[in-house]
Every structure is written in structure tokens, then in C-alpha cells.
Design a protein that fits this description.
The chain is of the alpha+beta class. It has 2 domains: 60 residues; 161 residues, Heat Shock Protein 90 (2-Layer Sandwich), CATH 3.30.565.10. Helix content is 44%, strand content 18%. Strands 1, 2, 3, 4, 5, 6 and 7 form a 7-stranded mixed β-sheet that branches. Helix 1 runs antiparallel to helix 2, helix 3 runs parallel beside helix 4 and helix 4 runs antiparallel to helix 6. The chain is globular and about 55 Å long.
Length: 225
């Protein structure tokens, strides 16, 4: 059985490597045509194939690097926009964090998928808020949907917890996994209450800062484009 599993994993890795290579080639071609949106989708395909191949092969996670937050999120945003989700990005250019860009992309992808599932049709904004600790960046993912139930603020990151199991499918793992990923990268995930007079779900992602750029206040999200 172990031999059969090793053979199967090898075949999976080979297939994913081919998908990964195709995504990279497609992205290069689309960039040369100046087709930025579809190039971002191809980059997302390449990145997801690489992540799956690493998971199947059990490859150790890479070391943290300094990366551009806006650029790291561009493929996942393009993917969800192509599926019809309304997303505004209000992250300052040059905002750099220390960590693994694929981890941040996975976490934000989970949050965007949650918004699609629990607040269909809601407008989502990715922006920054004032950092709560020196040397950190606070990234905020907010939507204008119904928001979190009261119990979520204490329990949403527990394994298997679901606020309303009958409202939407799922296993209660999205926020749990995302929180664990953020912690492993030296960051944190927390749920925030929306500003007074507004509604919706607001999730804060605290990252290690490597840019020195002053974050915009949460209220500035209203002017995102």
C-alpha cells in the first residue's frame, strides 16, 4: 500500500508540475500581449499548482521573505473578480511584509470564498488600517454583507465552529486554518466589529512590516476603488 501511495503521489506531482509549467508559460504569453487580467489568472493557476505539488510531496515550507503585499494578492483577486465577485483594493503601492506571499494569498482567498458563501453579492474591500503593534502591518478584509453573528467574535477561529450550519455548506475550517497559517508566519488573524453606523464582516490580518509605509485608517476604506 505504501508503494502504491508513493507511485500515486509521484503521478500527482508530475501532473501538477505540468499544470504549473503551463500556467507559467501562459502568464508570460499574456503579459507580452499586455493582457494583465488574464495574465493574473494564469499566475494564480501556476501558484495553486505549485502549492498543491508542495503539499503532495511534503516539501518543507520556504523561509520568510520580504514581499509586496498588493502584488502578492493580485492573482487571487483576479481569480475571484473573474468569478463575478466585487472587490476593491485599497492597499498602498510598495507596502512590504515579511512572510510567505503564498500563505497570505491562501488566507485572503479563504476570506473571499467565505464572503461569496455567506454574503453573496456583497462588495469586498482589501485595505489597511492603523497597526496595533510596532513593526506590523494591519491588512483588513471587509464586506458589506450581514456580518458575523455575536458568538463568532469568541469562537470563529475554533476548529469546526459554524455560526449557522443550515445557512451555507462548509466544515467550519476556513477561519481556523487561516488563523493557524497566519500564526505560523508570525502574524495574526482577528475579527473586528464594523465602524459605527456600518455593517458587514471585518477581518484583520496582522503581518510583519518591512516597508515603513504609514497605514491608512480603516475609515479610508470607503474611498477604495
Amino acid at each position: 500500500m505504501l508503494d502504491e501511495r508513493a507511485e500515486r503521489d509521484h503521478e500527482l506531482c508530475s501532473a501538477l508540475l505540468a499544470v504549473e509549467a503551463a500556467g507559467r508559460v501562459l502568464a508570460d504569453r499574456l503579459r507580452r500581449r499586455d493582457d494583465r487580467d488574464d495574465a493574473d489568472l494564469a499566475v494564480a493557476l501556476h501558484a495553486e499548482a505549485f502549492r498543491l505539488r508542495r503539499l503532495v510531496a511534503g516539501t518543507p515550507e520556504g523561509a520568510p521573505v520580504s514581499f509586496d503585499v498588493r502584488r502578492a494578492l493580485r492573482p487571487v483577486v483576479a481569480t475571484h473578480r473573474a468569478a463575478g465577485q466585487r472587490i476593491a483594493v485599497a492597499i498602498p503601492p510598495g507596502q512590504a511584509a515579511l512572510g510567505r506571499p503564498d500563505v497570505l494569498a491562501e488566507v485572503v482567498g479563504n476570506l473571499l470564498a467565505n464572503a461569496t458563501c455567506h454574503a453573496p453579492g456583497a462588495r469586498v474591500t482589501l485595505g489597511t488600517a492603523r497597526a496595533v503593534q510596532p513593526g506590523t502591518i494591519r491588512l483588513v478584509v471587509a464586506d458589506d454583507g450581514p456580518g458575523f453573528p455575536s458568538a463568532a467574535f469568541a469562537r470563529a477561529t475554533e476548529r469546526g465552529w459554524r455560526g449557522n450550519p443550515s445557512a451555507a455548506p462548509g466544515h467550519g475550517l476556513g477561519l481556523f486554518v487561516s488563523s493557524r497559517l497566519m500564526q505560523r508566519d508570525g502574524g495574526a488573524l482577528s475579527l473586528l466589529r464594523p465602524p459605527p453606523g456600518t455593517h458587514g464582516a471585518v477581518v484583520a490580518l496582522d503581518l510583519r512590516d518591512r516597508s515603513g509605509v504609514l497605514e491608512s485608517p480603516l475609515e479610508g476604506l470607503a474611498g477604495a476603488s
